[in-house]
C-alpha cells in the first residue's frame, strides 16, 4: 500500500461535520478533486492491505457502499 493510500485511510478516521469542509480539506491535503479522492477510497475498500491498516474505516465504508448500492438498485 502506498503512502497516499495510507494517508487516505488515516484521513477518513477524522470526524467531519460538514461535507464542504471535508471537500476543502481533500483539495488542500491531497491536491485532488473530491470525486477523484472518493474513487481512490472506493478502490481501497477492496484491498486486503487496507483492511489490515484501518479495519474500522474500511468496514464502515463497505457498509455505506452496500447501502448506496441497495438504494440505487431500487
Write up this protein.
- It is a single chain.
- The chain is mainly alpha-helical and 74 residues long.
- It has one domain (3-73).
- It contains five helices and no strands.
- The protein is globular.
What would the keywords be for this entry?
74 residues; globular; 5 helices; single chain; mainly alpha
Q: What is the helix/strand order?
A: HHHHH
Structurally, how many domains make up the residues? Answer: 1
Tell me the fraction of residues in β-strands, as a range.
under 5%
Mean pLDDT: 94
Gross geometry: globular
Tell me the helix content: over 70%
Low-confidence stretches: none
Main sheet specs: none
Rounded to an integer in angstroms, the radius of gyration calculated over CA atoms is 12 Å
Number of helical stretches of at least 4 residues: 5
DSSP strand count:
0
Head-to-tail CA distance between termini = 35 Å
User: What class, by secondary structure content?
Assistant: mainly alpha
Secondary structure layout:
Elements: H1 3-11, H2 19-30, H3 34-44, H4 48-53, H5 55-73
Question: What's the quick description here?
Answer:
The protein has helices at residues 3-11, 19-30, 34-44, 48-53, 55-73. The protein is an all-alpha fold and 74 residues long.
